[in-house]
Write the structure tokens for this entry.
Amino acid sequence: MDLYRIAPGTAPALVDRNPRDKTAYKDLKKATSGPTLAQKQKELAALQRLLWADGSRSLLVVLQAMDTGGKDGTIRKVFSGVNPQGVDVTGFGVPTEEELAHDYLWRVHRHTPAKGRIGVFNRSHYEDVLVVRVAEIAPEPVWRRRYDHIVAFEQMLADEGTAVVKIMLHISKDEQKERLEARLEDPSKSYKFNPGDLKSRAAWAEYMAAYEEAIERTTTDAAPWFVVPADRKWHRNLVVADILIDTLKAMDLSYPEAEFDVTDFAIPD
Ligand code: ADP
């Protein structure tokens, strides 16, 4: 998955990345991708069981995207085989009064995953250098110093046993138009349409600049960013699953050894 990983100190060059890219699975198409995803869902489920049994580490997955970028669909598809008891999904919307009364990391830190668990952030502390920057909710010196805080915060999580991966689902402005239109046309989707989304769509270039800089400043070995092409949902799902599988495999997890000799026991009838 190095294809989509942003190396430390590097800018993602979002304008040069094709959101319709399908390099990782050139030989597949939407119609033929089902069994491959099913295989990955199984693999992820097995790794989640191992993470739980090992009990010493955790995994935090940060998902960021423009509206309609597919955060919800990715979570639904990629985790559909995983035991829901081991996964905590947290969405971060406009901060509440209580959240605003604290520092901006307070609300996220409370939801980082406990040992043995997977935590998924649907939006995250990155909103505090994205929407906060673009919508001018805080002045530049305030959001700009947050890059360093975030790097230190994520390094601390990593040092204490949480593997952190951050994924930007990269859609094109054209694809967003289609998805927003679909929301307006389909009564079963129109509840998801939020007129406020048009405001962020109008500021597309500013958002891309904010993502560009945030990713460059916060992609580290301890907490790397991945920019996943996301116009093709089936390819996006396979790539995200691969990132999580690779990350869990690299965590050196093991089943605990029994503290007794298993051959000493026979289960009575
Ligand atoms: P989603 O759009 O992800 O389905 P919501 O409808 O809850 O979820 O919307 C989240 C909204 O909250 C987005 O418009 C986002 O920009 C906003 N938001 C998230 N974090 C912050 C923040 N720290 N400050 C201001 N707005 C935020």
